[in-house]
Amino acid sequence: MKIYAVIDTNVIISALLSRHQDSATVKVLDYLYDRTIVPIYNDEILEEYANVLRRPKFNFPERTVNATIEAIRKGGVRSDRLSSDEELPDLKDIVFYEVTLSVKDSYLVTGNIKHFPKKPFVVTPAEMLQIIQEMKSPRTDLLSEPTARYGKV
Hints:
Strand order of the largest sheet: 3-2-1-4-5
Number of helices: 7
Mean pLDDT: 90
Strand content: 5-15%
Shape: globular
Structural class: alpha/beta
Helix content: 40-55%
Number of strands: 5
Low-confidence stretches: 144-153
């Protein structure tokens, strides 16, 4: 099972700052590292990650920044932006939204849900975990008999 997603910078920062291994952002990053989540990116997104993760206020070790970006680059899919007419509160966020649009059935995982249009593919880290859990769990509520599902055959 693979889930394609653009990961907003705030999710990565929150995960790296968290002291709680069971937090939703940490689990999203764990799923990225184990390749359950296949990150989608372009050069602008990688540059944003590098610039923000290197801000002095976060004080992340350079090896952590490099390892995170390399995991995204190595395990991810590079994609171009698909132009959108959406107007977002922060113009820097449009690249994340448009790269998400470029890959069918992908998600945008963000901690700033209000910064993006209300779309089913724009999800919080907690919602992403729920999607992953639902995909991993077999549906037990489905009946196997064709007559039960489709009526008499």
